[in-house]
Amino acid sequence: QVQVVESGGDLVQPGGSLRLSCAASRSISTIDAMAWYRQAPGKQRELVARIIRTNDTNYADSVKGRFTISRDNAKNMVYLQMNTLKPEDTAVYYCNADLFGPTGWVSSWGQGTQVTVSS
């Protein structure tokens, strides 16, 4: 299993930038996939960006070209760089880690960090 803790959420103006961080309790090189999800009030949680062991990434259409997910194996950290933020990016952002083990996939979640985009 793995524990993850997010940080970096803040209030930012439209057009601004923010970097979210996710700290993992074990070597992320052993984690099959790590991702950022978000949940806005009254909406379902949605995938924002995902990175797998091979460093392949995928993004929600709504953030392509604006957000970048990256990993630092030496620090056991995953980041989400968010540029050109829009009010519709306002949400609680969650870090997720997926591990495939003897009993199948095990998914771990952080507590979330609030991102508010507003003038």
Number of strand segments = 11
Strand content: over 45%
Coarse morphology:
globular
Overall pLDDT confidence: 96
| Uncertain residue segments | none
Q: Give the count of helical stretches.
A: 0
Instruction: Report the order of strands and helices.
Output: EEEEEEEEEEE
Helix share, percent: under 10%
Largest sheet: 7 strands, mixed
**Gyration radius from CA atoms, angstroms:** 14 Å
For the record, give the distance between the C-alpha atoms at the N and C termini, rounded to a whole number: 40 Å
Structural class: mainly beta
Describe the structure concisely for a colleague.
The protein has no helices and eleven strands. The chain has strands spanning about 5, 10, 20-25, 35-40, 45-50, 55-60, 65-70, 75-80, 90-100, 105-110, 115. Strands 2, 4, 5, 6, 9, 10 and 11 form a seven-stranded mixed β-sheet that branches. It has a four-stranded antiparallel β-sheet with strand order 1-3-8-7, with no helix packed on it.
Helices and strands, with pairings:
Elements: E1 4-7, E2 11-12, E3 18-24, E4 33-39, E5 46-52, E6 57-59, E7 67-72, E8 77-82, E9 91-101, E10 104-109, E11 113-117
